[in-house]
TrEMBL record:
It is found in: Cytoplasm. Catalyzes the reduction of the glycolytic intermediate dihydroxyacetone phosphate (DHAP) to sn-glycerol 3-phosphate (G3P), the key precursor for phospholipid synthesis. Substrate binds at K106, R255, N256. Pfam families: NAD_Gly3P_dh_C, NAD_Gly3P_dh_N. This is Glycerol-3-phosphate dehydrogenase [NAD(P)+]. Transmembrane segments: none annotated. Residues 5-159 form the Glycerol-3-phosphate dehydrogenase NAD-dependent N-terminal domain. One of its GO terms (molecular function) is glycerol-3-phosphate dehydrogenase (NADP+) activity. Pathway: Membrane lipid metabolism; glycerophospholipid metabolism.
Length: 333
């Protein structure tokens, strides 16, 4: 068992802190707002993000990053992807030199097109054997309710992945280990964008054939970019790929799918933003992933159309009609 720090007390940071505590680890949870940390410590509940769920007593919250990470063997990062860089710059002096740094985030940075593991390596100087990713079909509220689910722990060092796997294996959470960090991160990021597209179709009133078509072709274009940036193609068939895509695109709990659904129903991006307190990563990552694909000469029509929709350059109806009327071609990845 290990001393762990979870940096970010939103939905997934808190739910994953529960997983770590259930697995027998000591968990310090860093929260941005002192008053939320006080509530968590006093009531053992994150009333803002997971109301009604009793947190294990082994979780203690703090607003002080130095206190959160002091002596931590495992530092878990769970803030919105576009906010990671700024936070990590201010936290990096407190990250213990030998700690393994685990990303729970599913996004690609705007401007740099970097995956979160690349941002972590750049800012902390940690080598690949100290950087890991957890990704899979893991909607926070279901995990916090201890509903059975599987996930993937990826680290280039298989031994480190296996150690982390043991540290987060509980009676309801079953992690698999793997070494494909690139594939895992790309799959987790792209599924949010495909989830937005599926949500748009749901909002327009379309049914399961439409959803399945977007999911399948979404996975194909994700795998295409994966092949270009060095991912293992098998990853896209697994929990971080197909698994997460199915969970996100099927569930009303998904913030990305819900965001798209509201757009499909006729709300503007600004209106949906105004109603959304939690992060829908695909809204930003559609831009960075679309640019990354272009840099690698890879076509990602669904991602590109979602980026155009978010930019206000096309309507939900146009998104669907333009995708369906693209030139006919063989079904290849
Ligand atoms: N919620 C899920 O079901 C789930 C599951 C798997 C992965 N993820 C991923 O985990 C990451 C975190 O998502 P979440 O669901 O916890 O998001 P959230 O919106 O529920 O919470 C985000 C947390 O980050 C904090 N935050 C926001 N802006 C910040 C800033 N500028 N500086 C520091 N902290 C800031 C918020 O206060 C909050 O504690 C995302 O990349 C998401 O895609 C989420
Ligand atoms: O709520 P979403 O759309 O951010 O999805 C949450 C998780 O990533 C599902 O695995």
């Amino acid at each position: 068992m290990a001393q762990t720090a979870v940096m970010g007390a939103g939905s997934w940071g808190t739910a994953f802190a529960m997983v770590l505590a259930d697995a027998g680890n000591d968990v310090r949870l860093w929260g941005r707002r002192p008053e939320l940390c006080e509530t968590i410590n006093a009531k053992h509940e994150n009333s803002d993000y997971l109301p009604g769920i009793a947190l294990p007593k082994e979780i203690t919250a703090t607003h002080d990053p130095a206190e959160a990470m002091a002596g931590a063997e495992i530092v878990v990062l769970a803030v919105p992807s576009q906010q990671l860089r700024d936070n990590l710059v201010s936290w990096s002096e407190h990250v213990p030199a030998d700690a393994v740094i685990v990303s729970l985030m599913k996004g690609v940075e705007l401007g740099t097109h970097k995956r979160m593991s690349e941002v972590i390596a750049e800012i902390t100087g940690a080598g690949p054997e100290r950087i890991a990713v957890v990704s899979g079909p893991n909607l926070a509220r279901e995990i916090a309710n201890r509903e059975p689910a599987a996930s993937v722990v990826a680290c280039e060092d298989q031994g480190v992945a296996e150690r982390l796997q043991k540290l987060c294996h509980t009676a309801s959470f079953r992690p698999y280990s793997m070494t494909d960090v690139v594939g895992c991160e790309l799959a987790g990021t792209a599924k949010n964008i495909i989830g937005l597209a599926v949500g748009v179709c749901v909002g327009l009133g379309y049914g399961d054939n439409t959803k399945a078509s977007v999911i399948t072709r979404g996975l194909a274009e994700t795998a295409r970019l994966g092949a270009a940036i060095g991912a293992d193609p098998v990853t896209f068939m697994g929990l971080a790929g197909m698994g997460d895509l199915v969970a996100t695109c099927s569930s009303p709990l998904s913030r990305n799918r819900t965001f798209g659904e509201k757009l499909g129903q006729g709300m503007s991006v600004e209106e949906v933003m105004g109603q959304t307190s939690q992060v829908a990563e695909g809204v930003k990552s559609c831009v960075s992933v679309s640019e990354l694909a272009k840099l690698h000469g890879v076509e990602m029509p669904i991602v590109e159309h979602v980026a155009a929709l978010i930019a206000g350059e096309m309507s939900p109806d146009e998104l669907v009609s333009r995708l369906i009327s693209r030139q006919a071609k063989p079904e290849t990845v």
